[in-house]
Input
Amino acid sequence: MNDRREFLKLCSVGLVSATAGSLSRTSRGEKDYLSEIKRVPIDATDGDEISGIVQSVANREILKFPAGTFRWSSEASVLVDDWGIQCQEDTIFEVPAGFGEDEQGTLLRTATGNRVADNYFLQNLTFDSPGRAAPQLTLGARNSATIDGLHYRMNGPLSGGSQGNGISVAVSNPGGSFRINDYWQFNNGDIGRYGSGTRIGIFVRPPHDGTIRLTNPILQGFPNNACYVSRHGGRVIIENGLLMNNNVSAVRVSGGVEVYDTTVVIDTDTYVQGEGQLTDGAHNTRGFWGDGDHPAAAPGGLVSGCSVILDSYERCTGLVNNRFENRSLNVKDTQFLANADIDGTFQIGNSTVECSNCRFDGTSERTTLGRAESGIIVGRENTSNPRFDPGVMPIKSYRNYDFDWNRTHPVTPRIE
Output
């Protein structure tokens, strides 16, 4: 897991390689618009600057990049419909070191003001850099867009200034949909340097009124949430993810946000032994954080079928923390493994967490199940402690509720 380049190379075998398959997912209605448009092979050699080529893509064109390493060093703004970028598995776009570190540096923009591109797809985009960098994709769609494979191979910045986010995205129409498959980034930033402008893995920005589906994300080491997806009126679905050592939260949840079959790992001791950093700053490595405190966001949210692993931390106010005016959060069919002592696996303010069919395990003998300031934690159905007493959490003595490693993400690191 420490050699992120080799890991990403190995994982790329699983990317979608069939052009027709990608095209059909971005079609509108019954007609496959993109299957009829022009494929444009790009004649580029190693070291060529390609941002201008991307900037000039026309309506009803697909840019097909060959294998090689090309420079992408400035913003490309594409605001047309029915287009795409298709790369080989060995296509790499090199970004200047420091890009986006002290500014919101954007590589690709598909939305600005009232102008939003639509019906496009991006396949096998891989970005690297000779140094740490924080490039951003500022994306939008009215009705339809798809990403099949987005990899950032470089580490993110260690500074605490304004930084670009991995993805900033919104869908404007209520019936619109944006699919993001296989977005992987080991940011390995300083997760002690939280600030309003520090790097986020994926930020769903308002106004978002459609649906964003994030499938198989692998995100590590972001100082300002891995998935900041809570403050909007639309829908976000996260599935089959692996979210490791992210500050503030792995996922910020509100009404319209659903997280399924996702593994969260908090192990900051191992994190700082690698390429990440944790200074003595504003850090709080939660798992899920209920956040309904925004005019566009409805309270609520769902966490289902997930696995949360706590091995080590410096500060963590709950593996599930429901505050910020989020009145009720539903956690179901989810398992928790606590190998470090924490006073409150669930921590809430003036709100409610409903927990059903959850299991708890771990080597910790001092971890408590929950803390509630003025709200309540409700245990329903086949939860391991039916009364959901906020006292000592059931651990190894509850053998019939053992943590099931087969339910975790396939590449989850395991501490023996």
About this structure: Residues 1-31 have pLDDT under 50 and may be disordered. The CA atoms of residues 351 and 375 lie 5 Å apart.
